[in-house]
From TrEMBL:
Region forming the signal peptide: 1-22
Organism in which the protein naturally occurs: Pseudomonas syringae pv. helianthi
Protein keywords: Signal
Protein's UniProt name: ABC-type dipeptide transport system, periplasmic component
Top-rank lineage group of the source organism: Bacteria
Length: 83
């Protein structure tokens, strides 16, 4: 196939795809959010956002440990846990 024909077909496919608009999610909080990085959010307002946005490896409800993203866990030594 000639390069010109390939270029025209590629352009036609791009134009046929149409435009995609961005989607927004707006959440109202009383406190300003300083970071959405789960490693940096020790502030209570940031943690509340992270709890809605990220799933944890293990969660605890009513003093019972329930799996989250981790399907199993076991101690690999007295100090470490293998998830």
């Amino acid at each position: 196939m000639k390069p010109l024909v390939r270029s025209l077909l590629a352009s036609a496919l791009v134009l046929a795809a149409g435009s995609v608009s961005a989607q927004e999610l707006r959440i109202g909080y009383a406190d300003p959010v300083s970071s959405l990085d789960p490693q940096l959010n020790n502030y209570a307002g940031d943690r509340s956002v992270a709890l809605h946005a990220f799933e944890s490896l293990v969660s605890r409800r009513d003093d019972k440990t329930l799996p989250g993203l981790a399907k199993s866990w076991r101690p690999s030594c007295p100090v470490n846990t293998r998830l």
